[in-house]
Amino acid sequence: MIITLKGIKTSAIIGFWESERHAKQRLIIHISFEVDEKMAVAKDNVDHSVDYAKLEAEILEKVPNTTFNLLEKMNQFVTDIVMSRPAVQWAEVEVVKPDAPLQATDSVSVKQRTVRK
After folding, report:
1. Rounded distance, CA 8 to CA 78, Å?
2. In the list 10, 17, 94, 100, which could disulfide-bond 111, CB 3.0-4.6 Å?
3. Alpha helices by DSSP H, 24-100
4. Model confidence, pTM
């Protein structure tokens, strides 16, 4: 079963350029991950799945309190949080930076898919 959290809104100090590192910037995170639904469905219990409210809360607690130079590093940071849940078989994380300092681009994003080994 695939679970998706779309549009987690947060902010962090992120950017390579000095001008980007003076204030937190808006970020939007999209996460999809797969869990084996057999036990979760059979038991109807979150202990056999992922408590996505707790996952969201952890992301909202940690991301704003961490500084990143690269969007790629932040993506890996969020991916590590998702993959720390034992029930997650794979995760796809996209981090969107809507206010990237580009002239003709709406946003920049980094997307990564990680599979548990």
Report:
1. 11
2. 94
3. 37-43, 52-62, 71-83
4. 0.91
